[in-house]
């Protein structure tokens, strides 16, 4: 009978209820709580409870981010609560108001259904014995005293909560009401809920409250210190503003007054123009009225420092001795006689007239011919300071004129920066790559350079940052460019252009032997240990380099020396003499292949000449006649429109003068003609290939071979006249490099032979022609014509000197 009663009693203490897993929330008995429910299973549990007796089991999750909690994810103790009110906010959100009824222990959890269903057993808090009642009363008093301290740190607690706690003497009520309504972490609240004895629960609550008071006390101390610092900062700011106002009224400032006086003395010592001095002194006055830590003071200091750093009235004395200049130029550069003579002329004029201004030199030539190094040499022989600024890719006008001081991070332009770096008001400034200036929405720097390079304007050059004029008239500007055609016309008009041509084979050899090789022997630590024979240098020139300048030549010489250094460092040899054969062993097979030109007398192939921005090139033209055609003309080889027109002129000339060269009209009419310029990947254009096209076409139609030792250039007209061309100097250099012995040039270009290198004129025979009959008479090996014309007598090439070379660069046959 007794066992049956015990089983019934246990069954009555166990309940099966829907459950809600709470995130970061712990509910206590006898407390009303409202919260939001969003998980489908939790909403389903509320609906199940509402259909039953409105009872639901509320238990907290151990981790708030668990979406599908199991029994291991939940705490062991929770509260059986009664749902008082349900408010559906949306389809997936429900607000619930519940009242905790009793503490319960979780026994089992079933999460397989629509909602969590649990089996729980009531777990009321155990009371105390009579002998511990005094201890319990002491705990309650301590708890209330600690709560009053807690209130001093957290005054935002509701008055109702404060009243309920201080007015109650019930230990059980306080053990449930205080953790439910004070700002504790949910883990700490759960620790109190887990405690099953009243005495133990009050002890843990007292420890928790003491700990919170300590933390709040530390936070309050930190807040007080921060507030004190803030109050101090605000007080200092207020006092500083008062001092600033007083200083403005008195026109005085103790912080920056001495500094402003120092600046004022330095400015007055410069003896500037009255307007410039007045502006700078105004800036000093502004500085004197400011506090030292004001933001504007650093801007004024930077501006004054920049102005004072400029070399006002600081100049160097020019060394205009002709002998000294000649020695320096000959020591640093081989050849370039025209450039050297122009520099000596400049020095001579300056020696006779010290007031001369506005001599701006522009060195134009292919890469690697020594434009930049020449500027260094000019500065050295004149005894001037040197500054270089590269203009390649510069697209912002502010790079030249500077930024206005209204911008953050404003600074002067590159011109003023170069003068400051040189520490002289008459330096030599090299404007490198002036032909590669760009322009965009920020302005056109080439237009800004007009003022810099104009001798009538640069005496009062005004940088946007300085905003006071600076005299640039004493500065010697030298510019460099690879192609003068890309320099804006107004800018080019202000410069005296000196053209540097490609080096000849002999010049490259001497440059390598006298300058490049000694320099690289020293750089690689091989002086006295490695020698290169003349044959080795010629082998490098002919087999491994093909360029207008010597930059790649120096690179190849360095490559050879590095390989020698490797052998010496490895102990394979103590000294090495590099021969031509050894060059091939060190560098491998020759990289420069022979150019495709007609090297034997052939039908339908003529050697032409072309101009490029990096020197001259050979431009062979091939013509093939295909019998039994329809008279179609095929043009290949990336020919431009102008060159295609020259080809059509050649065809017309051949049709008109067919009888003179024993060419039947039926052969032209019934044959297809294919005209091709080799190296089809390289675009080609320009009118100067007209004579070459005509010669190759007449040769192909008549079957008469073209001489392989002749190159030619010239524009043609419809009636066979030969017109002048440009770039004769570069074209003749290309023919000379390929071993051509005779060049046919337009008669009007005879004057341009003055600029052709003496070595080229000595080795090459120039034949001036005025019409195509003369060209064909010279070029065709066995001309078959109805009327024979004697070629014009040609004077020696060295005697063909013109007074005014005016046909330079009128066109180009190929563009790279």
UniProtKB/TrEMBL annotation:
<feature type="domain" description="Lon N-terminal">
    <location>
        <begin position="17"/>
        <end position="213"/>
    </location>
</feature>
<dbReference type="InterPro" id="IPR008269">
    <property type="entry name" value="Lon_proteolytic"/>
</dbReference>
<feature type="domain" description="Lon proteolytic">
    <location>
        <begin position="600"/>
        <end position="782"/>
    </location>
</feature>
<comment type="subunit">
    <text>Homohexamer. Organized in a ring with a central cavity.</text>
</comment>
<dbReference type="Pfam" id="PF00004">
    <property type="entry name" value="AAA"/>
</dbReference>
<comment type="similarity">
    <text>Belongs to the peptidase S16 family.</text>
</comment>
<dbReference type="InterPro" id="IPR015947">
    <property type="entry name" value="PUA-like_sf"/>
</dbReference>
<dbReference type="InterPro" id="IPR027065">
    <property type="entry name" value="Lon_Prtase"/>
</dbReference>
<dbReference type="InterPro" id="IPR008268">
    <property type="entry name" value="Peptidase_S16_AS"/>
</dbReference>
<comment type="function">
    <text>ATP-dependent serine protease that mediates the selective degradation of mutant and abnormal proteins as well as certain short-lived regulatory proteins. Required for cellular homeostasis and for survival from DNA damage and developmental changes induced by stress. Degrades polypeptides processively to yield small peptide fragments that are 5 to 10 amino acids long. Binds to DNA in a double-stranded, site-specific manner.</text>
</comment>
<dbReference type="InterPro" id="IPR046336">
    <property type="entry name" value="Lon_prtase_N_sf"/>
</dbReference>
<feature type="compositionally biased region" description="Polar residues">
    <location>
        <begin position="806"/>
        <end position="816"/>
    </location>
</feature>
<keyword id="KW-0963">Cytoplasm</keyword>
<dbReference type="Pfam" id="PF02190">
    <property type="entry name" value="LON_substr_bdg"/>
</dbReference>
<dbReference type="InterPro" id="IPR054594">
    <property type="entry name" value="Lon_lid"/>
</dbReference>
<feature type="region of interest" description="Disordered">
    <location>
        <begin position="783"/>
        <end position="816"/>
    </location>
</feature>
<dbReference type="InterPro" id="IPR027543">
    <property type="entry name" value="Lon_bac"/>
</dbReference>
<keyword id="KW-0547">Nucleotide-binding</keyword>
<dbReference type="InterPro" id="IPR004815">
    <property type="entry name" value="Lon_bac/euk-typ"/>
</dbReference>
<protein>
    <recommendedName>
        <fullName>Lon protease</fullName>
        <ecNumber>3.4.21.53</ecNumber>
    </recommendedName>
</protein>
<dbReference type="InterPro" id="IPR027417">
    <property type="entry name" value="P-loop_NTPase"/>
</dbReference>
<dbReference type="InterPro" id="IPR014721">
    <property type="entry name" value="Ribsml_uS5_D2-typ_fold_subgr"/>
</dbReference>
<dbReference type="Pfam" id="PF05362">
    <property type="entry name" value="Lon_C"/>
</dbReference>
<dbReference type="InterPro" id="IPR003111">
    <property type="entry name" value="Lon_prtase_N"/>
</dbReference>
<feature type="active site">
    <location>
        <position position="731"/>
    </location>
</feature>
<keyword id="KW-0346">Stress response</keyword>
<keyword id="KW-0067">ATP-binding</keyword>
<dbReference type="Pfam" id="PF22667">
    <property type="entry name" value="Lon_lid"/>
</dbReference>
<keyword id="KW-0720">Serine protease</keyword>
<feature type="binding site">
    <location>
        <begin position="365"/>
        <end position="372"/>
    </location>
    <ligand>
        <name>ATP</name>
    </ligand>
</feature>
<feature type="active site">
    <location>
        <position position="688"/>
    </location>
</feature>
<keyword id="KW-0378">Hydrolase</keyword>
<dbReference type="InterPro" id="IPR003593">
    <property type="entry name" value="AAA+_ATPase"/>
</dbReference>
<dbReference type="GO" id="GO:0004252">
    <property type="term" value="F:serine-type endopeptidase activity"/>
</dbReference>
<keyword id="KW-0645">Protease</keyword>
<dbReference type="InterPro" id="IPR003959">
    <property type="entry name" value="ATPase_AAA_core"/>
</dbReference>
<dbReference type="InterPro" id="IPR020568">
    <property type="entry name" value="Ribosomal_Su5_D2-typ_SF"/>
</dbReference>
């Amino acid at each position: 009978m007794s066992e049956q009663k015990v089983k019934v009693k246990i069954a009555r203490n166990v309940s099966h209820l829907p459950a809600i897993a709470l995130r970061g929330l712990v509910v206590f008995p006898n407390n009303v709580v409202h919260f939001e429910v969003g998980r489908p299973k939790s909403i389903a549990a509320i609906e199940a409870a509402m259909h039953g007796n409105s009872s639901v089991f509320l238990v907290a999750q151990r981790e708030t981010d668990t979406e599908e909690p199991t029994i291991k994810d939940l705490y062991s103790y929770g509260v059986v609560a009664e749902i008082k009110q349900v408010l559906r906010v949306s389809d997936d959100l429900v607000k619930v108001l519940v009242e905790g009824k009793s503490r319960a222990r979780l026994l089992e959890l079933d999460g397989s259904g629509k909602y969590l269903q649990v089996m729980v057993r009531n777990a009321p808090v155990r009371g105390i014995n009579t002998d511990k009642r005094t201890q319990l009363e002491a705990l309650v008093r301590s708890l209330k005293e600690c709560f009053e301290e807690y209130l001093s740190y957290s005054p935002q607690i509701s008055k109702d909560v404060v009243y309920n706690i201080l007015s109650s003497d019930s230990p059980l009520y306080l053990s449930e009401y205080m953790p439910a309504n004070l700002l504790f972490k949910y883990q700490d609240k759960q620790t109190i809920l887990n405690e099953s004895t009243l005495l133990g629960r009050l002890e843990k609550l007292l420890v928790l409250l003491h700990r919170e008071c300590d933390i709040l006390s530390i936070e309050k101390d930190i807040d007080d210190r921060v507030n004190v610092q803030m109050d101090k900062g605000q007080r200092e700011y207020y006092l500083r503003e008062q001092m600033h106002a007083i200083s403005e009224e008195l026109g005085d400032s103790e912080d920056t007054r001495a500094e402003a006086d120092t600046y004022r003395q330095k400015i007055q010592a410069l003896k500037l123009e009255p307007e410039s001095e007045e502006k700078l002194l105004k800036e000093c006055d502004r500085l004197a009225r400011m506090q030292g830590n004001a933001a504007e003071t650093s801007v004024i200091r930077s501006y004054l420092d920049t102005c004072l750093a400029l070399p006002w009235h600081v100049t160097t004395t020019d060394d205009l001795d002709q002998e000294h200049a000649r020695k320096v130029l000959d020591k640093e550069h081989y050849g370039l006689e025209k450039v050297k003579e122009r520099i000596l002329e400049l020095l001579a004029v300056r020696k006779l007239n010290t007031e001369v201004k506005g001599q701006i030199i522009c060195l134009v030539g292919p890469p690697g011919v020594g434009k930049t190094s020449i500027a260094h040499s000019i500065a050295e022989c004149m005894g001037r300071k040197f500054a270089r600024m590269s203009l390649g890719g510069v697209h912002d006008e502010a790079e030249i004129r500077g930024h206005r001081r209204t911008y953050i991070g404003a600074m002067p332009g590159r011109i003023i920066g170069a003068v400051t770096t040189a520490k002289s008001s008459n330096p030599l400034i090299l404007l490198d790559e002036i032909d590669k200036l760009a322009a965009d929405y920020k302005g056109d720097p080439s237009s800004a350079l007009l003022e810099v390079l104009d001798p009538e304007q640069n005496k009062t050059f005004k940088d946007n940052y300085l905003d006071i004029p600076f005299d640039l008239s004493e500065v010697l500007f030298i510019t460099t460019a690879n192609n003068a055609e890309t320099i804006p016309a107004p800018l080019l008009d202000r410069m005296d252009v000196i053209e540097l041509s490609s080096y000849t084979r002999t010049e490259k050899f001497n440059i390598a032997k006298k300058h490049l090789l000694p320099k690289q022997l020293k750089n690689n630590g091989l002086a006295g240990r490695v020698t290169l024979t003349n044959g080795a240098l010629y082998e490098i020139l002919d087999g491994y380099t093909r360029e207008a300048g010597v930059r790649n030549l120096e690179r190849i010489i360095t490559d050879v020396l590095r390989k020698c250094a490797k052998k010496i460092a490895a102990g394979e040899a103590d000294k090495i003499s590099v021969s031509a054969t050894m060059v091939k062993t060190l560098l491998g097979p020759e990289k420069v292949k022979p150019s495709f030109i007609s090297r034997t007398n052939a039908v339908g192939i003529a050697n032409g000449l072309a101009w490029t921005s990096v020197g001259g090139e050979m431009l062979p033209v091939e013509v093939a006649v295909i019998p039994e055609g329809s008279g179609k003309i095929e043009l290949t080889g990336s020919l431009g429109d102008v060159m295609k027109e020259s080809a059509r002129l050649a065809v017309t000339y051949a049709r008109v003068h067919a009888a003179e060269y024993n060419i039947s009209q039926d052969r032209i009419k019934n044959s297809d003609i294919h005209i091709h310029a080799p190296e089809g990947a390289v675009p080609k254009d320009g009118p100067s290939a007209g004579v070459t096209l005509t010669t190759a076409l007449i040769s192909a139609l008549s079957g008469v071979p073209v001489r392989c030792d002749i190159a030619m250039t010239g524009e043609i007209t419809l009636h066979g006249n030969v017109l002048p061309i440009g770039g004769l100097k570069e074209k003749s250099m290309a023919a000379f490099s390929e071993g051509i012995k005779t060049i046919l040039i337009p008669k009007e270009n005879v004057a341009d032979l003055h600029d052709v290198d003496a070595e080229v004129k000595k080795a090459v025979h120039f034949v001036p022609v005025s019409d195509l009959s003369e060209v064909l008479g010279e070029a065709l090996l066995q001309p078959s014509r109805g009327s024979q014309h004697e070629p014009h007598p040609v004077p020696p090439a060295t005697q063909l000197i013109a007074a005014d070379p005016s046909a330079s660069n009128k066109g180009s046959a190929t563009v790279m």
